[in-house]
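Is this the right way to post C-alpha cells for a design question? Let me know if I should format differently. Anyway, here goes:
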C-alpha cells in the first residue's frame, strides 16, 4: 500500500514538473513571438530612419490653437510649430480652419526623402464679414416649395407649409391629403401646416406664382453675391472644417462626408455658392455653434442636392434642380427646389416655430414726376425690381433693409437711397423724380408721442410715405397740398388732416400722437365679504390681493384671456377671453364654492387611514403569535 502511495506521489511530482516545463516553453515562445511582431511593426527600426516633418505657422497671435492632419493623423498646437516623425514617402496634409483666418496653403502633398522636411503655413486675418441675408420673399412661407413634384415615401414629419407650382396637386405623392372646404389648400397627417397646389381655388394660384418667382429671385441673389472670402475651400471637400461667417464659392461640386461646423453669432450669415451638386454623406451633420441660426444659412446649389441617410442638416436649400432627402435624414430649414423634392421618411422643421404662414408686410415704393411708361427700379435688401408703372412692391418680414432707386432718365431722384424698417405694418416710401434744374422743397412732418420704433405714415397729395422715426419727408415743387395722417393702433391724433403750402422754402408740419389705453373692470360675485381674490390676464402677472368687489386694469386694443382664483382656493371661477376695441370693457367673474372631489382625502383622513392600518397590523401579529403557541 505504501509503495502504491509512493508511486502515485512520484507520478504527481513528475506531472507537476512536466506542466511547469510546458508553461515555461509556451511563455518563452510567446515572448519571442511578441518580440518578432514588435520588430515587424517597427519596420526593423535598426535599418529604417524616421525624419522630422516640421510645419511652421506665421500670422496667428500667441496661444491660438491650430491643427495639421498628415497622413490621416491630426496634431494640435498653440505654439508656432507642429512636428511629425515620418519615414521616406509621399504624404497628404490639410490645415484646419482657424476662426477669423485663412491659411496658405490649405492642403497639399509633401515628400520625405532622406532628410527632414519643413513646410511653412501662413495665416491671414479675414476682414470683418457683414453679409446681408438672402431675402426669400414669400418663399419663406414654405418648408418645401417645388415646381414639378413633391414625393413622400415613409412616415415623414413636415412642420410648415408645402407648395407646388406650376404643377397640379396630382404631382403630390405619398401624402394622402384631404381638401379643405374652401378648395384653397389641403392637409395631411404628415404635415403641420397646409399643402398648396397651382390648381387649387383662388387666391392660391397667384400666391404660388409669387412664391416661386421669389424663390428664383433668391437663388439668383445668392449665386450673384460677389467677393467671396473663400474659393474652392478644401478642393470641394469641407469635411471636419469649422467655417466662420461669410461668402463661400465652389466652381464645381461640394462634399460633406461626415461633419462641418458653422461657428458664429445669431446675427452671422453664411452663403454657399455651389456651381455643381451638393452631396452630404450618410450620417453627416451640420453643427451650429456660438449661437448660429439655420435661418441665416443659405445653400445655393446649381445642380442636385442629396442628403444621405440619417443626415442632420441645417439651412435654407436653394436648388436650381432637385432635392433628395434620404431615409431618416432631418432638415432644420427649408427645401426650395426649381424642379422636385423627394422625401423618404424625414423630419423637416422651418427655422422658427410654425404658427402659419410667416408674417410678411408690403414695402411699397411710389414714384411721382416720371413720364408715363418710363422705366425705373428699386433695389431693396439686395433684390432689384423694375417697373414702368407708378409703384414697386416688395414683401418682407420684420427687419431693417437698405434701398436705392434709379431710373432711365436724367432726373434727380429724391431720395435716391436710404434705410427702411419693417415693424409689423406695411411700409410706404415716396420717391420724387424731378429735372436737374427744377426747384424742389422738402415737406416734412414731425411726430411726438409715439413709442420709439412705431411705424406711422402720412398721405400727401395722394402719395403715402412711412417712417419708424420722428420725421417723414416728401419732395415737392411750389404749390398747396392736402395731407392726411393715417391712424396708428392705440394712439389718438390731435389733427388728422390739413394742407401744406410750399412757397420757395421747406415746409414743416407737427403731428401730435397720444397713447390710448382702455379701462377693463372685473366685477366678482359669489365670494364672502372680505375674501381675497386675484385676476391674471394675458401678458400680465397676477394682480395684487383684491379685497373689494371690483378690480380695474388698463389695456390697449387687442384680444386677451384671463383667469381668476380665490385665497386658499375655497372658491373657483372659470376664466375666459375678451377683446378691447376702442372702448372700456366690464367683465363679471362668477365664483362658486370649490366642491370636494369623490375619492379626495384631507390630511385628517390620511391620519385615520394610517391609524387603522397600524391597528390591523398589531392584531394580525398577535393572532399569529397565539396560533403558534397553541
Amino acid at each position: 500500500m505504501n509503495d502504491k502511495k509512493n508511486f502515485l506521489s512520484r507520478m504527481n511530482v513528475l506531472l507537476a514538473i512536466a506542466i511547469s516545463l510546458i508553461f515555461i516553453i509556451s511563455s518563452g515562445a510567446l515572448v519571442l513571438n511578441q518580440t518578432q511582431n514588435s520588430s515587424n511593426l517597427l519596420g526593423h527600426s535598426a535599418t529604417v530612419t524616421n525624419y522630422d516633418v516640421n510645419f511652421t505657422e506665421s500670422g496667428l497671435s500667441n496661444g491660438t490653437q491650430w491643427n495639421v492632419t498628415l497622413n490621416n493623423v491630426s496634431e494640435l498646437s498653440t505654439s508656432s510649430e507642429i512636428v511629425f516623425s515620418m519615414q521616406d514617402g509621399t504624404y497628404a496634409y490639410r490645415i484646419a480652419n482657424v476662426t477669423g483666418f485663412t491659411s496658405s496653403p490649405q492642403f497639399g502633398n509633401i515628400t520625405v526623402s532622406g532628410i527632414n522636411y519643413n513646410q511653412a503655413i501662413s495665416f491671414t486675418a479675414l476682414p470683418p464679414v457683414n453679409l446681408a441675408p438672402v431675402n426669400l420673399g414669400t418663399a419663406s412661407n414654405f418648408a418645401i416649395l417645388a415646381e414639378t413634384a413633391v414625393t413622400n415615401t415613409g412616415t415623414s414629419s413636415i412642420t410648415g407649409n408645402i407648395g407646388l407650382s406650376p404643377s397640379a396637386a396630382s404631382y403630390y405623392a405619398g401624402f394622402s391629403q384631404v381638401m379643405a372646404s374652401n378648395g384653397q389648400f389641403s392637409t395631411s397627417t404628415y404635415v403641420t401646416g397646409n399643402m398648396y397646389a397651382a390648381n387649387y381655388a383662388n387666391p392660391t394660384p397667384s400666391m404660388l406664382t409669387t412664391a416661386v418667382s421669389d424663390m428664383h429671385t433668391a437663388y439668383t441673389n445668392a449665386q450673384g453675391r460677389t467677393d467671396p472670402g473663400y474659393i474652392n475651400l478644401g478642393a470641394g471637400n469641407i469635411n471636419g472644417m469649422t467655417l466662420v461667417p461669410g461668402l463661400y464659392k465652389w466652381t464645381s461640386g461640394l462634399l460633406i462626408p461626415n461633419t462641418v461646423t458653422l461657428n458664429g453669432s445669431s446675427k452671422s450669415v453664411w452663403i454657399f455658392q455651389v456651381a455643381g451638386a451638393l452631396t452630404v454623406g450618410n450620417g453627416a451633420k451640420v453643427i451650429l455653434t456660438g449661437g448660429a441660426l439655420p435661418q441665416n444659412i443659405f445653400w445655393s446649389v446649381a445642380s442636385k442636392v442629396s442628403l444621405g441617410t440619417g443626415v442632420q442638416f441645417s439651412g435654407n436649400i436653394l436648388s436650381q434642380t432637385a432635392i433628395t432627402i434620404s431615409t431618416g435624414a432631418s432638415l432644420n430649414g427649408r427645401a426650395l427646389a426649381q424642379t422636385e423634392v423627394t422625401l423618404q421618411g424625414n423630419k423637416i422643421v422651418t427655422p422658427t416655430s410654425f404658427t402659419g404662414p410667416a408674417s410678411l408686410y408690403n414695402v411699397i415704393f411710389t414714384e411721382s414726376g416720371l413720364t408715363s411708361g418710363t422705366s425705373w427700379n428699386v433695389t431693396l435688401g439686395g433684390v432689384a425690381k423694375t417697373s414702368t408703372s407708378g409703384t414697386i412692391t416688395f414683401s418682407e418680414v420684420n427687419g431693417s433693409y437698405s434701398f436705392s432707386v434709379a431710373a432711365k432718365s436724367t432726373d434727380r431722384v429724391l431720395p435716391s437711397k436710404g434705410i427702411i424698417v419693417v415693424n409689423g405694418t406695411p411700409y410706404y416710401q415716396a420717391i420724387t423724380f424731378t429735372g436737374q434744374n427744377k426747384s424742389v422743397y422738402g415737406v416734412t412732418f414731425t411726430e411726438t408721442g409715439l413709442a420709439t420704433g412705431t411705424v406711422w405714415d402720412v398721405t400727401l397729395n395722394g402719395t403715402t410715405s412711412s417712417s419708424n422715426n420722428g420725421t417723414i419727408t416728401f419732395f415737392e415743387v411750389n404749390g398747396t397740398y392736402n395731407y392726411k395722417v393715417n391712424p396708428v393702433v392705440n394712439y389718438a391724433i390731435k389733427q388728422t388732416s390739413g394742407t401744406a403750402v410750399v412757397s420757395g422754402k421747406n415746409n414743416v408740419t407737427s403731428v401730435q400722437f397720444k397713447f390710448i389705453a382702455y379701462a377693463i373692470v372685473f366685477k366678482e360675485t359669489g365670494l364672502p365679504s372680505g375674501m381675497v381674490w386675484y385676476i391674471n390676464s394675458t401678458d400680465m402677472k397676477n394682480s395684487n390681493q383684491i379685497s373689494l368687489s371690483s378690480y380695474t386694469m388698463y389695456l390697449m386694443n387687442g384680444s386677451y384671456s384671463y383667469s381668476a382664483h380665490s385665497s386658499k382656493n375655497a372658491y373657483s371661477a372659470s376664466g375666459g377671453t375678451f377683446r378691447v376695441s376702442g372702448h372700456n370693457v366690464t367683465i363679471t367673474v362668477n365664483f362658486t364654492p370649490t366642491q370636494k372631489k369623490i375619492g379626495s382625502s384631507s390630511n385628517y383622513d390620511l391620519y385615520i387611514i394610517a391609524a387603522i392600518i397600524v391597528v390591523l397590523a398589531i392584531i394580525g401579529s398577535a393572532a399569529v403569535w397565539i396560533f403558534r403557541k397553541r
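Format looks fine. Someone answered above. Worth noting: The chain has three helices and 54 strands. Residues 518-593 form a domain with the Immunoglobulin-like fold (CATH 2.60.40.1120).
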